[in-house]
Design a protein that fits this description.
about 0% strand, about 80% helix, about 210 residues
Length: about 210
């Protein structure tokens, strides 16, 4: 297999995975049949730069599978990011509007209990360390949000909000979600993508030219 054919296959797979993630970012949905297109891009990228025969076909099929998995992982990440940020905004906004009126520590403790920022049953049962952590991490976000009342787009672009969201989702495993979310439709389109990558590289060059003519 020619080295440039491998480069073409990798480039096709990277482009396909990027397009899949971009579509998810723009639409907010994962479109499964894009996986078929990812496999096609891998195969045609390999074929265009000289990939022919069994070795090229098997390599392209393997890279198609890898690219499809990467593309699906990127789409899940995009969807989690956009949907998660929106849910966080809708969750925080009414609380932020209430928190601007919190002035004392007793009121802060009562707010934490009322809004489920603690497992304690009453304000006086909240450990001091938990109150200090709330004041350091969450309270500034609520205070700022309640005073400024930003739109969703303004709010999600703030660096401190992105940092908070990143910490909140640090334990979320995209890989676990990927494999748990695989369904029959995903497997069908993944198979079609892999088969397309394989078949493209198995086409003889003369046949391709004759068909084009």
């Amino acid at each position: 297999m020619k080295p440039m054919a491998l480069v073409g296959a990798v480039a096709g797979g990277a482009l396909g995975a990027f397009i899949w993630a971009l579509v998810a970012c723009l639409t907010g949905f994962e479109i499964g049949y894009v996986a078929w297109g990812v496999g096609g891009l891998v195969g045609f990228g390999c074929y265009a730069l000289g990939g022919r025969g069994q070795t090229a076909a098997v390599t392209a099929a393997g890279l198609a599978l890898a690219s499809i998995l990467v593309g699906k992982a990127l789409t899940i990440q995009q969807i989690l990011s956009s949907a998660g940020m929106r849910q966080l905004y809708d969750f925080f906004m009414p609380q932020a509007q209430a928190f601007v009126h919190v002035d004392s520590e007793d009121e802060c403790r009562a707010f934490m209990v009322a809004n489920h920022y603690t497992d304690a049953a009453s304000p006086d049962q909240i450990p001091d360390e938990e109150v200090d952590e709330f004041k350091a991490r969450t309270a500034p976000l609520l205070k700022d949000m309640g005073e400024k009342k930003p739109s969703f787009d303004e709010w999600q672009d703030e660096p401190k909000v992105q940092e908070f969201f990143g910490k909140a989702t640090a334990d979320v495993s995209v890989v676990t979600i990927l494999f748990e979310s695989l369904g029959p439709i995903d497997l069908i389109f993944a198979f079609l993508g892999i088969a397309t990558a394989y078949q493209v590289c198995m086409r003889p060059e003369k046949r391709a030219w004759s068909n084009a003519a």
